[in-house]
Amino acid sequence: MIERKNLAGHLAALFTIxxxxxxxxxxxxxxxxxxxxxxxxxxxxxxxLALLLAKPRPLxxxxxxxxxxxxxxGLCGVTLYFLCENIALTYTLASNVGVLVxxxxxxxxxxxxxxxxxxxxxxxxxxxxAAAIAGIALIGLNGSFVLKLNPMGDLxxxxxAVVWAIYSVLMRKISGFGYxxxxxxxxxxFYGLLFMIPALFFFPFEFGLERLAQPxxxxxxxxxxxxxxxxxxxxxxxxxxxxxxVKTSIYIYAVPVVTILFSALILHEHITWMALAGxxxxxxxxxxxxxxxxxxxxxxxxxx
Length: 304
Fold this sequence. Notes:
The protein has one domain. It has helices at about 1-20, 25-30, 35-55, 65-90, 95-100, 105-115, 125-140, 150-175, 180-195, 215-245, 245-250, 255-265, 275-290, 290-304. It is mainly alpha-helical. It is globular and about 45 Å long. α2 runs antiparallel to α10. The chain contains 14 helices and no strands.
């Protein structure tokens, strides 16, 4: 039963990454009509409303201290992470941001080892990390050897990786409170939106809902709000609850792989041999870090 639940956790994390890896398409389309901060605010507002409809019963924390964990998760996983990532893209290359953000599993492992019980580090984690980061770097280059270092942009991208690691650890703590995943995710979205409000005064923002009259804008925003935000944050948080912060975060390695595959399928972008080699290295790193082959063998044995 435990192995089957773990397998379900892996499938939930994989499903989440498959969706998150494709969000660049919707975001790219929406950027024709919306500012980055507008997309961010609208998608999480929509996600919050969807979760409210799914589980309208309010979540009442048994202890006031627990509310601080939700506040921290909303600040880190929603507000700071996406703001740091989006602002970093205005200062440095997207490939730099992609590589630096993808090192968040390393920071997650360090923080989880320090602050969580049962989150042990194994040598295969570091071996997998090295392989995955090498692969992600190759994917980021994708045939282009023009490197451009920008301290501000790269620092913000690295900060995004750190705050996502903090979010993962906080969600692991929250999962121990015994509340429902949907209600916990909704509470996190609430605080994320609350902390996002001050940023609306510093970046170009207007409601301009008439832009949603265009079907392409409406459909892409629905995908980001209902799919990538409401559904995927819930499945990701459930995976963290089931597998732990470290094991779940390792799936972030696969985001660039999914992105480059869908860029070829949907946007017809060219994939070089360097990108293919990076994809193979990244997947190898994921297999090594998660020890997925052993999990599948055990699940098959229990199933038979």
